[in-house]
Amino acid sequence: MKPQSPDTVPTDVYLSFVSSLFGNRKTLFTGVFVHILTYVIVFLSTGAGIYLGLCLAFAAVFAFRMHSFWQFDAANKHAFSRADIAHWETRYVLGAAGTAGILGIGSGYAILIVQDPLAEFICIAVTMASMVSIVGRNYGSQKAIDLQTMACCLPIIIACLMSEQLYKSIVSIMLVPFGLTTRSMANGVREFLYKNVIASREISLIADRFDTALNNMTHGLFMLDADNRILVVNRKACELLNLAHQEQLRDCEFDVVLRYGARHAFIDGSLPGLIQRQMAQLVSGSLSRTLIQFNEDLFLEFSASRRADGIVILIFEDVTPRIRAERKILHMVRFDPLTGLPNREYFVGIVKEKLAARTREGQIGLLVLDVDDFKHVNDTKGHFIGDRLLVAIAARLKERAGDMALSARLVGDQFVLFFPNEDGEPDLDSRIRALHAAMAGTYDVDRNSFRVSFSGGYVTMSSREFRPEEWQIKADLALFETKSRMKGGCSAFEQEMDARYVERQKLKEDLREAIEGGRLHAVYQPMFTPDGSRIDCCEALSRWVHPEKGSIPPNVFVQIAEEMGIVTGITRFMLNQACRDCATWPQPMSVSVNLSAQDLRSNEIVTMVMEALDVSGLEPSRLHLEVTESCLMDELATVRSILTDLRAKGITIAIDDFGTGFSSLSYLDTLPVDIVKIDRSFVRDITTDSRRFKLLCGIADLSRALSLEIVIEGVETPEQLSLIEQYDLADIVQGYVFSVPVPRDSIAEMVDNLRRHQPAMRQDNVA
After folding, report:
1. What's 622's DSSP letter?
2. Of 338, 402, 407, nearest in space to 369 by CA
């Protein structure tokens, strides 16, 4: 680490050495005063005028050096290059060497010319004393040491040698090792200082880097001594704990700092005691990591490391965003995002917790609510309005339930309520039914008003008997019972429902096997002209005879098939069977087959119909397809496209049960319809109720105005038939007044009988 020359040391160190030359100016004033005084004394004692000249030289050199010092002070040292520093070193060396040269000349002159012992002694003594000071003042420049040593010693050595005095010459030669020793001492001082400067600079650099790293950490840090006093604290710690004056915190007690934070209200009032206990556990080593909540907006996670000497390092970070994200995720996991109510899993967890906290057994209740006809809201108003309606329902549910029940959203438009019945109400059923009734009513959503009713199913049981895997099954069974009887009601679970449910599940499996095994069969109800002279078409009706239960009504097994999503299997069977049977009947008699809503959800039905026609060889014009208005509620555009495609292939399209659905008249104009089948509800009581008869007439007039063929269903009495025929209300009549549904073979017999009766009827007409 020895600096051989200025070029081998860093610029800043070189500058510091040169700057040291221009320091400690008091010694210069002392030196010039002593030098001038000495030479004045020599002049007075010897009368040699040269010493007065040397005094003037001392003054001139001193003035030059002072001017250089002042210029150096005024210079911008931060802008110095190495050349600039070398220039200033040279200026200093010139001044210092000038002073040393005057001393050397004065001493040599006294030895060689004056030859006065007192003058020689005084001059040499002052010169040697000045050489001693060279080390202390000029260690920063090797040039200055070398030149000053030579300037002082060389004139003395030359003068002694020229005096031809042996002892003086020998003694003068001893100045050479003296000068070398002086030079070596100065170099030693410079090397020592150089090492310390470099070491100090490295320590400063390390300290600066450490300070930079410490104060730019994303974590807060406290270093505490064994007495719990703060040794080190970084800027982030002060920011996180809302503490000022980072430097002033050193040597403060950590507990006092925390209490200071509490007084300045960054800690919630109820928390300081808990926080101090947690901190004490960290500092003592009983905890290595902990999460501390300082207030609702600040969560800090601390970790502690304890050293053998008792020093504790606390590192902590702000985990508030993480805690908020975790809470948000937990809320998303636990709560329904639309309504804000607990979801099913969290609801079950809350119920379990409440029951586990009960100190005594009691009756509890669970109610499942289903919004009636909610699908109609989505279809007519859109899903956005439907969602807003669910939000309004949830808000009313929470309001009506209050502290009496815990509400949650199960799925879709189903809600559930738990009645803990902590007050031991004996008539829990009445409380449940009252809440169900309170939920029905008008809901206003975005300038839309909805009259909403709820189908409910509930179960009551002892709190000890609660089983999460069973309660919803029982409540759903009760809900299913309500829907099967009358929407808008509320039913309690009864054990018989379970048996009926099991039986229904068995019936589903049997129906699936019957459809897959082709064990259904078809019957046909003829459609006559109003005068009964001709069968125009026959409606194909599916029948299922269960091997154990006997004949199952169509409204039962068709509904089950729709629930199971296998009604298309029934449709496929009926299409194939009806087309084969109709192909055996005399032309132009047609057959009519009903399609379900599920059939009209994809173009697969078109392929199915064409395959049935191709296999049977039946002409497309002899096949009628009936769709109910409920089929038109789902995806009207898709249904319109499918029916248009079928009609383009020559198949006749009929609307069945016309008048029982929504917006019936609008469908007559927008759909590819050929036939309107007026529902039996419009025929009932037309012989006694004039208003109902007028309504039937109006529908018939409208249909004829649209060039639609009219079929009236459910005509059961001759009086009804007579009135329809008299006012020409129908093109075709279907009902028990002509025939009940019959097997396919009976159709051919009925046609033959009508043909045989035709001549007799014509003869009667002629007569």
Report:
1. G
2. 407
Helix residue ranges per DSSP H, 139-165: 142-162
* Token duo for residue 539: 């409606």
Q: Which two tokens stand for residue 388?
A: 């807003």
Question: Which residue ranges make up each domain of the chain?
Answer: 11-201, 217-325, 337-493, 506-750
pLDDT band at 766 (very low <50, low <70, confident <90, very high): very low
Pairing of strands 732-733, 363-371: unpaired
Q: Give the pLDDT band (50/70/90) at residue 309.
A: confident
Between CA 503 and CA 334, with CA 428 as vertex, the angle to 5 degrees is 75
The reported pLDDT for the residue numbered 259 is 67
Enumerate the H helices of 11-141 as residue ranges. 11-21, 26-46, 50-74, 82-109, 117-138
Q: Flag the least confident range among 6-10, 415-419, 697-701, 705-709.
A: 6-10
Q: Write out the two tokens for 668.
A: 């007559």
Contacts of 645 (CB under 8 A, 6+ apart): 603, 606
> Which residue from 478, 448, 483 is spatially nearest to 371, judged by alpha carbons?
483
pLDDT in tens, 205-258: 776 777 777 777 778 888 888 888 888 888 887 777 777 677 777 778 777 777
CA distance 304 to 360: 45
Polymer length of the chain:
767
**Tokens representing residue 494 in the block:** 């009864």
Query: Helix, strand, or coil here: 629?
Result: helix
The CATH number given to 337-493 is 3.30.70.270
Give the DSSP letter string of 347-413. HHHHHHHHHHT-SS--EEEEEEEEETTHHHHHHHH-HHHHHHHHHHHHHHHHHHHTTT-EEEEEETT
Give the CATH architecture of domain 506-750: Alpha-Beta Barrel (3.20)
Q: Distance (Å, rounded) from C-alpha 525 to C-alpha 4?
A: 123
Looking at domain 217-325, which of 3.40.50.300, 2.102.10.10, 3.30.70.590, 3.30.450.20 is its CATH number? 3.30.450.20
- Name residue 643's amino acid: L
DSSP H helices, 450-566, are 468-485, 495-516, 554-564
For residue 4, the SS3 value is coil
The tokens for 680 are 């039996």
- Kindly state the percentage of the chain with pLDDT values over 90: 28
Q: Which of 301-315, 357-371, 473-487 has the highest mean pLDDT?
A: 357-371
